[in-house]
Amino acid sequence: TATLISGRELARQIHREVQSEILEMVAQGYRRPHLSVILVGNDPASHCYVRNKTRTATALGMSSSTVFRPESVSQDELLDLIDSMNRERRVSGVLVQLPLPEHISERAVCNAVAPEKDVDGFHIVNVGKLSLDQRCMIPATASAVWEIIRRTGIETVGKNVVVVGRSKNVGMPIAMLLHSDRRHERPGGDATVTITHRCTPRPQLKEISRLADIIISAAGVPHLITADMVKEGAAVIDVGINRVQNTTSGELCLVGDVDFEGVREKAAFITPVPGGVGPMTIAMHVWNEGLLEQL
Ligand code: NAD
User: Contact, 60 vs 285, CB < 8 A?
Assistant: First the structure.
């Protein structure tokens, strides 16, 4: 059976590194990193994510502040707010929690954040740099997957990787990191990467995933990856977070995209949900926040 990769343990490792990095920076006379967050509306999940991020940031020696705006906020007001944060010297990182209400363009908002303060890595300049293998702010979920693979010692060079999901914030940047050249400015994984998505027929997904040395699922579909789709000895990284009702108890619980019990019998490595990519994503987010000044 598979070795369970603890995202919580790896996240603690990252936290320690960020914390000592900040201590050293401050000791050398650099400003303490400050994260400014904008949170629109009252979606409980968004509030929970923001609380987690700012709490972690302060626990590791940064300062942070959150500005709340109602669902009805105008795009112009939001852009003005971002502009003032861009200009404030004390603010090293700006984070606008997504999703935003329908009447606001997320692209316009992401592009309004100064690229050098863009802790999410969603600004068009950071996306462009990522695609060109240049040093940049990398979206936290993608660097979470990358660090999990690196720190577990899973080989990627010349390996077959399947990334399930092609979203611009998750699937695409994961594929970008893994397929690119390890000798470039921002080193990649040198893997042979196949990207699958909602139009990939299930039988074809199975054919491709059975050849994969690493399967990374970021589709948001429970039980999408089953044991019959996994090669013996593969590494399976589950990015998906799905709220499902337990059939016997009726309780709501969190599951990933991977049929965990079945797949763990065949895989060599597997990440659990919760406790896998989730905590590592928060850790890589604070990593971005803490290390902005050095970019
Ligand atoms: P999204 O809805 O934007 O994208 C989902 C992607 O999956 C799309 O590209 C779609 O084409 C693809 N897809 C849908 N059904 C598929 C199928 N049957 N086969 C193959 N591909 C299929 O979602 P997202 O923002 O990319 O997030 C993906 C999942 O990861 C969600 O469950 C989300 O909650 C989770 N997530 C987790 C973390 C974390 O920290 N662990 C962070 C971000 C997102």
Answer: no
Taking the CA of residue 144 as reference, the ligand 1 atom at the shortest distance is 40
Tell which CATH classification among 3.40.50.2000, 3.40.50.10860, 3.30.450.40, 3.30.565.10 matches the domain 24-115: 3.40.50.10860
Atom of ligand 1 nearest to the CA of 281: 40
CATH of domain 140-280: 3.40.50.720
Structural domain boundaries in the chain: 24-115, 140-280
Q: How far apart are CA 212 and CA 269, in angstroms?
A: 13
Q: Do domains 24-115 and 140-280 have the same CATH topology?
A: yes
Place of tokens 């977070």: 241
Rounded to two decimals, the ipTM of the complex is: 0.99
What pLDDT, on a 0 to 100 scale, did the predictor assign at position 163? 99
Amino acid identity of residue 235, one-letter, is A
pLDDT mean for each 10 residues of the chain (295 residues): 98 96 93 96 94 94 97 98 97 96 98 97 98 97 98 98 98 98 98 98 98 98 98 98 91 95 98 97 93 61
Whole-angstrom distance, CA of residue 33 vs CA of residue 47: 22
61 C-alpha to ligand 1 centroid (Å): 32
